[in-house]
Each structure stands twice: as structure tokens, then as C-alpha cells.
Amino acid sequence: MSTIRFQALQTVLTRTIPEVKQPSFKISDFYGSNVFDKKKMQDYLPKETFKAVLASIESGSPISREIAEQISSAMKAWAMSKGVTHYTHWFQPLTGTTAEKHDSFFEPASDGQAIERFAGDALVQQEPDASSFPNGGIRSTFEARGYTAWDPSSPAFIFGKTLCIPTVFVSYTGEALDYKAPLLKALSVMDKAATEVCHYFDKSIEKVNASLGIEQEYFLVDLALFNARPDLFLTGRALFGHASAKGQQLEDHYFGSIPERVLAYMQDFENEALQLGIPLKTRHNEVAPSQFECAPIYEEINLAIDHNQLLMDLMEKVAKRHNFKVLLHEKPYAGINGSGKHNNWSLITNTGKNLLAPGKTPKNNLMFLTFFVNTIKAVYEHADLLRASIASVSNDHRLGANEAPPAIISIFLGEQLNDVLDEIETSRISKKAKEDSAMWHSIPKIPQILLDNTDRNRTSPFAFTGNKFELRAVGSSANSSSPMTVLNMIVADQLTKFKAEVDKLIKKGDKKDVAILTVLKKYIKESKNIRFEGNGYSDEWAAEAEKRGLQNIKTTPKALDALVSEKTEKIFEETGVFTKREAHARHEILLEAYYKKLQIEARVIGELVTNVILPAAVKYQTELITNVKGLKDLGLAKDTYASQLEIIERLSKHINFIKSNVEQMVDERKKANVLEDSRDKAIAYDEKVKSYFEPIRYHVDKLELLVDDTIWPLPKFRELLFIK
Ligand code: ADP
Ligand code: MG
């Protein structure tokens, strides 16, 4: 009897559901209670200081020392009133998780007494020993200093008993070592470019914020079963496992009633999230068994991403209380759906106008079309960079496979808007009109309510959904900063170019609206190839995309080339979002992460096969041999043990295949390990090492079907996937 698996199964049967206490019946009573938000700032700060802080947050201007000093004492007073003892700078290094180093407020005083202190300096800047965070060669170890610097636009919050201060993380020489610093740069470039373009239509607009609503998919598995699967706890995904007889084929899980145990977990982490000001609104089952989704109401991007990072931490923490493990990996189980993180993106002005919402009047629609068409053009021009921004070893399982969405970046608009763009493309723009309005006939009427607003094409990586674009290609475990930095940067750059072209036409004597429409028409034509309304999973689309010249890069090492291409270098430099050194460092870090993760997976496969799978197969085979010998001893005819003999032989075939392939895989790994260049190494890991994973798995999964169930050591998919 395989004890680990059966003990785990026993444990699952004894689970009880912990009681979940909501702080108050009304969510509005406790929403944001653990956030040092504007309201609390106002309560704790002198009026003048409060005003100065607000102004600084709005404009992004630096905060003076004295004011920082006042804010830090206010934060400390508020935090201590809630039983907090420590503070930390909270940042997002390129490892993909969040980092923190806690310091106590406590300081010894001279007379053997102690005081609680939190100075302005400690709020504004810290110097964590940063030598072991990924830096892609930017800092050599003798120059290990990195700084974390306060980001006042994201409010401080209390996590556990610690006051957390959102910060950026930069090297001593000023290069970004995190996700937040480049994002803030891209958002500021976007604000400037979009505001300027807005002025064609509305001079009162002073600021444009990019907004983001992140849908987060995840799997849940019982903690005991998770712990009985070394592949799950070392790599986040099941490297072996035959499909369960029942999987997602009946589609009975999606939007079905949420299992009681899961609901308690959801309520628990939602309560905590709401106290942290994370506006969680939606929860439901997803397509695969044991797969779920939650989504907050959209927020300004920087905050939305901080909140998503925090939410992922929170989900993991709260899961322990419920004896669950949350799997954020993009593809924990072969054969059923993986998980993504849909990024719903739009642009919203300080006057509250959504620039991606079609308006009531034709004039408004020209404004909408301006931002709409520029976004399409930007994605068309930099599809390869957008692809690179979502590339990771785990996301390759989704993007390359026949599963949402494909590795080809295309844009879905829906029939109506497609028609609108087609009409503009073929229309004649009347330049002679005395009034601007005389040319409005060339802008087709956009229906108020887009009928296909809900008729979503789920196979598209980038879809327009009524008043926002939805980037669906982001992986469930990713930090959304990476694609959002790229998206905002490329659209901002495009808007700047658009403005230059329009201004040139105006200078030549065109009326403003005529000039705008002329340039839009040109863009519509140029970027036409990226628009696709059909089935993104189909082979026809792959063939058609190739004809159209769209790229289809299925694996990360090659997708990442776009990060350091000449075209990218140019846009990074023009927008100032990344220096060349930063881009190359990031490229290096991502390649390294790629092959290291495959290296770990390859090792786990080797170990599990050798120490866990093969011994189980051999044990069962030995039992069969004993049985055959016994039957023979009784003098029975050969046909009484023919089946057993056949199984014995099949077992041997699988055993031999697995053993020899693992050996070959180890040889390939050794060859890959000595390669110097990270790109070469990543490609070798992809093409030479990883290519053994599937064949080995196939034979292991065959053994799983063959071997006595009471001997099989690893929890099976049917046990992992159906929550009791
Ligand atoms: P879906 O039908 O795609 O599953 P959900 O309701 O689960 O939609 O999630 C949609 C997400 O998009 C939510 O986070 C929502 O707040 C967000 N959203 C809605 N409007 C906008 C907008 N204008 N800009 C950005 N995000 C938005
Ligand atoms: Mg969605």
C-alpha cells in the first residue's frame, strides 16, 4: 500500500470547513480599513501637509523632507493604533513575487528604555541588501547596493502585523530592478501623449489615466494531496498524471455552484482583500474542475497591479487556513484548461471620460476612433514586443498549445466596429468642406450599444469588449506590469506619432478633423492585417496569419528576441521607458529564469521516475511474476497466466523506455549546462531537454493505468481535481 498517497486521501476525508467571520455585515463598514488612504491621511495629518501630499500624488512631484517626516509619523501612529509593530518597503523584484524586509519600529533609547520610531528617511528610501535579486548583470556583487524608493501614488497598507510601503526598486546607478519603475515611466509617457491628443477634442482635459481590471484564474487542491506530489510543490505543475476519466468534458463545473469548502475560502480571502482596499467583486467556477476565478473592479493601473500582486500573496496565505494550496501556475494539469489573467484596459480622463467608449455624437466618435485606431496600430507595429512581454516557461503551455489564446497576436473588434473601420478605409474624405462638420458623413454611425459587446471571441489574445480592450494572453502567475508597461508605452508612442502627423497636415492647411480622419484612415489601412474575427485556435488561422506576415513564436527564448531588437531599442529610447542596459539585463534575467525552471522540471522528472515511479512498477511486476510462478507450480496450462505474462512484458517496455529516455535527457542537460550564452542555453533546454518531457510522461501515464491502484504512489488526477 502506497502510504503517502493513501494517508493524504484519508486526511482529505477528515477536513472540516473553518468558520469564516466577516468583520461586519456591510462591506462598506470595513472596506479599506487596513489602508492608509486619503481619508486616514486627512485624519492624521495637519491640513496643509495633507494638501501638499495630495498635490504631489496628483502631479508626481517630489515630496519634501519635512512633509515626509510628518507622513511617516502619521503612518506610524495609525499603524500602531492597529497593533502593528514592524514596517517594510514592499517591492516587486524580477523574481516575479513580492519582496519585503521587515524592520521594527522599536529603537532602544539611551537610558535603557525604548521608543517606537519611524523616520521620514526610512519612509522615503531604503537600502536592502539586494545582491541576490535578479539583476541581469547590472550590479556586480561588489556593488550590491539597490534602493527601494517610496511610491506615494500607491497607499501604504497593513499586512499581518506589518506596515507595508509600496516602493520601486532601483540599482545604485539608477537602473530599474523591478516591475514598478518602468511601469510608472510608461504611465507617465501615456498621460502626456494621450492628454495632448485629447486637446484636439477637449481642452479641459488635464490628465489621462490608464485603467486596469484583472481577472485572476487559479486552481485549488487539498494541501495533503499537494504535499504528496513533489512535482506540484517543486514546480507548480503536475509533470505526470493520466487524465481523469471525468475531466471537463461535461462542462458541468463552469459557473456551477461553488463547492462549500471553496466558498468558505473565497469569502475568507475576499474579506481580507476588501480590508486592504482591493475591490473584489466577482467570483465563479471556471471551465476546468477545481478551477476558479476572481475579479476586482478596475482601478488605475499602478494600483490595480499592486493589488493583484498583493491578492496573489493573500490567496496563498489564506489557503493554508483552509488546508488548500492555490495553484497560480498557467498549466498545472495537462489535458484540461490552463489559467490566465485577463487584463482589461482602457484610458480614462480626469474629467471621467473613457476614451475607449464610443460616444453619442459623431464628434465624440472621432475622439473614440482616434484612441481606438491608434491602439490597433500600436499593437500591429509592436505585436512582437507584446508577445515578448507575456512570455514565460509556464505561459508557453497555453500560448503554444491549442488553448486560449494562440501565440499569434491578433485583434478582435466584433463585426460592427470592423464594418466601421472598413467603411472609413474606403470612404472619400471631403477636404473642401467649409465647416468641419461637413465631412462627418465619412464617419459611419457607431451604434450606441454594441450588440456583440458580450459576443466575445474567446480565442482572441486581444479583444475589444465594448469600452475596453482585453489582453487575454497574460499568464495567471505573471506580474501584469510587464505587458502593461509595453501596451501603454507603445500606444503612447503611437499617439505621439499620430499627433505629429496630424499637426503636419493642419500646418499644410487641412482642417483639424479632416487631418485627423486622414491619418486614421491611413492607419486603418496599414494595420489591417492584425484584425481577425475568426477562430484563433484553428490551423487555418495559423496558415492565414503566416500569409499576412504575422509572427507565431511558440516558445519563450525566441519570443524574447523582440526585447532587444533594433525596433524595440528605438521605442525604448524614444519613450525613455528602458535604457539599452536595462532592456538587455531584463532579456538576460528572463532567459535565465526560463532555462532554470526547465532545469528544475527535468531534475524532478528524473528523480520521480527513478525513485518513485519505477520502483512502483517493478513492485507490481514482481507480484505478477510471483503469481505466474505459483500458477505454473500448480501445473496449470499456459493460458491461465497468459494475461499476466502480457502485462509483465508491457510493464518492461514502459520501464525500459522511461529509464533510457531519462538517461538521454540527463545527457542533453549536461550538454546544455556548459553553454555560455543564455539564449543558446535556453534554446537548448527548450529543444533538446524539454523534448523528452512528453514522451517520458506518456509512458509514465501508461504505467499509472497499468499498475495496481493500491501500489501507485502519486495522487491521481481524479483525486487532485475533484474537491471534497
Ligand atoms: P468577463 O466577462 O470578461 O469575465 P468580468 O466582469 O469577470 O468580465 O471582468 C471584467 C473586468 O473588466 C472587471 O475587472 C471590470 O472591472 C473590468 N472593467 C470594466 N470596465 C473597464 C474599463 N473601462 N477599463 C478597465 N477595466 C474595466
Ligand atoms: Mg474576461
UniProtKB/TrEMBL annotation:
Residues 85-174 form the GS beta-grasp domain. It holds the Pfam family Gln-synt_C. InterPro entries: Gln-synt_C, Gln_synt_N, Gln_synth/guanido_kin_cat_dom, Gln_synth_cat_dom, Gln_synth_gly_rich_site, GS_Type-3, GSIII_N. GO terms for molecular function: glutamine synthetase activity. Residues 179-613 form the GS catalytic domain. GO terms for biological process: glutamine biosynthetic process. It comes from the Bacteria. Belongs to the glutamine synthetase family. This is Glutamine synthetase type III. It comes from Pedobacter aquae.
